[in-house]
Amino acid sequence: MSLRFLRQLSTMATPIEDALRQKITAALGPTKLVIHNDSHLHAHHKAMAGNTSQETHFRLEVTSAKFEGLRLPARHRLVYDLMKEEMQREGGLHALQMKTRTEEEDRREEERNKV
């Protein structure tokens, strides 16, 4: 699946989702980027009381050659660093759940799922 197609899956993009897509694309040149807005699943949490944002919790799937040679914590730090501004903003991004893979890891995962 091409990156262009995955972008088209999200027809209701929002400012933080747009920032995720733009910053990750610019910095990591992903071959796969899937963004899920799971904010509605967390709206009832105590930490979200009084927060009117619909963009607090996201799940990402990112495949990039930039992850080569990096362990999982370093990959996640790389993405968190990109989104620092959005995470520090009042009522902004609260949580990111990530699957970060190299192209080879993604290929192996797809092969496992075919079986």
Automatic annotation (TrEMBL):
It comes from the Eukaryota. It holds the Pfam family BolA. Signal peptide: none annotated. Residues 91-115 are annotated as: Disordered. Coiled coil: none annotated. One of its GO terms (cellular component) is mitochondrial matrix. Residues 100-115 have a biased composition (Basic and acidic residues). GO terms for biological process: [4Fe-4S] cluster assembly. SUPFAM superfamilies: BolA-like. Belongs to the BolA/IbaG family. This is Bola-like protein. It comes from Terfezia boudieri ATCC MYA-4762.
